[in-house]
Amino acid sequence: MKHLIKAASLALAATTATVSLAAPVAAQQVKGIAFADLEAAARQSSAYTTAAQQRQTTYAAQISQAQSARQAAAQRLEPLANQFNTARQSATPDQTQLQTLYGQIQQIQNDSEQQLQQILQPVALSEAYVNEQISDQLKAAVDAARAQAKVSLLLGAGSVIDGDDAYDLTDEITAQLNRLIPAAQIVPPAGWLPRAQRERLAAQQQAQPAAAAAQPESR
Questions:
Q1: pLDDT tens digits, residue range 105-149?
Q2: Domain range enclosing 141
Q3: Is residue 21 part of a domain?
C-alpha cells in the first residue's frame, strides 16, 4: 500500500511539474496579444486635438458664414414645412399642393447643402490635411508601441468582443504619435488634394497615354 501511495504521489508531482513548466509559456503567448482602436488613437493625439482648436480660429470666417447660411435656410424652410404639415393633416389632402411643397423643400435643402459644402471646403481640406499627416506616422507609431509592449499580435478593437484594459494598446499608440508628430500644419499648400484624389488623378493620367496608343491611327 505504501508503494502505491508513493507511486501516486510521484505521479501527482510529475503532473504538477508539467503544469508549472507549461504555465509561463501560455502566459507569454497571452501577453503577446493586444488590441487597439487606431482611429481613437489618432483623434486623441496632440496633433489632432490642437489642430481642431486652431481650426476654429484660422477658419472662423468660413465657420461663421456657414452658420449664417444654415440659419437662412432654416428660416426659408420653416414656413414651407408648416404649410406641408398643415396640408398633409387636412381631411382631404391636396396631393398636388403636397408635391409642390415637398419639391420646394427638397430644392432648398439641396441648395443649402451645396452652399455649405462650398463655404466649408477650406475647413474640410484642412481636416483632411491634418489627418493625412497623422496617418503618415501611424504605422511607425503602431510598430513602436508594439515593440515597447512586446506585442506579437495586434487586433483591431472592432474584432474584439470583450477584453481587459490591460490588452488595450490605444493609449500607447497615441503616445508614440505624440512623439513622432507633436503638431500638424492645419493650412494645406495651394492646390493640395487629399491622397485619394491625388491617386485617382494619377491613375487617370497614366491611363490616358495607354488609351491614346490603343486608338487606331486615322488615314
A1: 999 999 999 999 999 999 999 999 999 999 999 999 999 999 999
A2: 34-201
A3: no
Residue 60 CA to residue 54 CA, distance in Å, equals 10
In a domain, 208, yes or no: no
* Number of domains comprising the chain: 1
**CA proximity to 130, closest of 49, 40, 36, 41:** 49
Residue 211 lies in a domain: no
Enter the DSSP assignment of 166. Answer: G
Output the nine-digit C-alpha cell for 26: 501560455
Whole-model pTM: value is 0.76
- CB neighbourhood size of 181 (10 A): 22
Burial code (b: 16+ CB inside 10 Å, e: under 16) for 117-154 equals eebbebbebbbbbbbbbbeebbeebbebbbeebebeeb
Secondary structure of 105-121 as H, E, C letters: HHHHHHHHHHHHHHHCH
> Are residues 155 and 33 in contact, defined by beta-carbon separation less than 8 angstroms?
yes
Give a yes or no: residue 27 inside a domain: no
